[in-house]
Structure formats: structure tokens, C-alpha cells
User: Which sequence fits this backbone?
């Protein structure tokens, strides 16, 4: 069965949205394979997770945001779970995310800086899912 990796980012945990995000996963019928509350992740781990973005000018904002507090990490499985979870998350930018999506219903538009606080992460391909599951749940 297809698997994907997800994160409830620091804004989602801080704002008390863990239950509502997990409820959507369960309501959709996806199987929870792994689920953990973790302390704020290290910069090193976040850099590895976002290895494709570390050279972008805005990357320091992502690192500061992702290391700013506890997160929930998990693995879910189900038919076409990778693309379905990304549809459930909605567009990257809160102001573009449609109502009915997690980001469209819960993410607040940016106030002040260019940080995009958008509640959730989901792997974008089978290769990313395998890499991210190994990174966050694999043997050290
Ligand atoms: P995704 O989370 O929808 O897959 P990606 O393009 O993979 O979006 O970017 C990863 C994360 O990096 C986003 O969710 C967002 O938090 C942050 N991010 C992406 N683009 C920007 C940007 O232009 N400015 C600030 N943060 C960004
Ligand atoms: Mg992405």
C-alpha cells in the first residue's frame, strides 16, 4: 500500500490544530502507520528534510519556522495517499489555498515577514516519501 510522510508544523501544534488534522486523516479512511509528537527539530534535520530548498534566499525563514516549536510527524497509508494528502493540504500559500483544504480552512495569511506558516507538510512523490520516512523514522 502506498505510504506518505506528513508533518503537523509548529504553527499547527501551537494553535491546537493537531486533533482536527488527525480527524481529517481518519475521516478520509487513511491508515495511521506512525505518529509521534517530537520536540522542536534541529536545524540539521530540517536542512536535510528540505534539502531541495536550502539554497533559496528565503530558506532561513523556513528553518527558523520549522525549528520554532514541537511538531507531530507521522506516516499514513492508503490508495493514492500521496496525491490525495496533498489535495487535502491545499496550496502552499495560505492565501491561495481553497476552502475545504487544511491550509485553506486553518492557515493564517502572513503578517509581517515572508514566512509561509501553513500547518502541514506532505511528501510530493514516492521517492520523497521513502526518503522522508527514512530520515524521520529510520535508524540513526
Ligand atoms: P509544499 O509544502 O506545499 O510542498 P514547497 O514548495 O515544497 O511547498 O515548500 C516547502 C515549504 O517551504 C512550504 O510549505 C513553506 O512553508 C515554505 N516555503 C515555500 N516557498 C516559500 C517562499 O517563497 N517563502 C517562504 N517560505 C516558503
Ligand atoms: Mg514540498
Assistant:
Amino acid at each position: 500500500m502506498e505510504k506518505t510522510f506528513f508533518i503537523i508544523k509548529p504553527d499547527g501544534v501551537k494553535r491546537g490544530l493537531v486533533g482536527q488534522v488527525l480527524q481529517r486523516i481518519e475521516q478520509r479512511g487513511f491508515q495511521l502507520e506512525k505518529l509521534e509528537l517530537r520536540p522542536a527539530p534541529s536545524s540539521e534535520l530540517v536542512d536535510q528534510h528540505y534539502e531541495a530548498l536550502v539554497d533559496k534566499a528565503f530558506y532561513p525563514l523556513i528553518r527558523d519556522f520549522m525549528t520554532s516549536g514541537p511538531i507531530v510527524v507521522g506516516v499514513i497509508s492508503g490508495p493514492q495517499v500521496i496525491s490525495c494528502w496533498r489535495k487535502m493540504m491545499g496550496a502552499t500559500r495560505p492565501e491561495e489555498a481553497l476552502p475545504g483544504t487544511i491550509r485553506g480552512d486553518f492557515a493564517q495569511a502572513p503578517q509581517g515577514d515572508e514566512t509561509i506558516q501553513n500547518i502541514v507538510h506532505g511528501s510530493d512523490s514516492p521517492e520523497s516519501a521513502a526518503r522522508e520516512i527514512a530520515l524521520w523514522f529510520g535508524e540513526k
Remarks:
- The first strand starts at residue 3 and ends at 8.
- The domain at 3-137 is CATH 3.30.70.141 (Alpha-Beta Plaits).
